[in-house]
Design brief:
Layout: H1 2-36
Organism: Tsuneonella dongtanensis
Keywords: Signal
Protein name: Entericidin EcnA/B family protein
């Protein structure tokens, strides 16, 4: 039981860190899209 709880804690930490990484990638792509629209001041 103790090993299972440790494995659950470690795997949940990995999943949460992956979500933060994906969110950061989405923000980067959105910022590139804002610069590409040609409006001044969006970059």
């Amino acid at each position: 039981m103790k090993k299972m709880l440790i494995a659950l804690a470690l795997s949940s930490g990995l999943v949460l860190s992956a979500c933060n990484t994906v969110r950061g990638a989405v923000d980067d792509v959105e910022s590139v899209g804002d610069c590409a629209d040609g409006r001044p001041g969006n970059c």
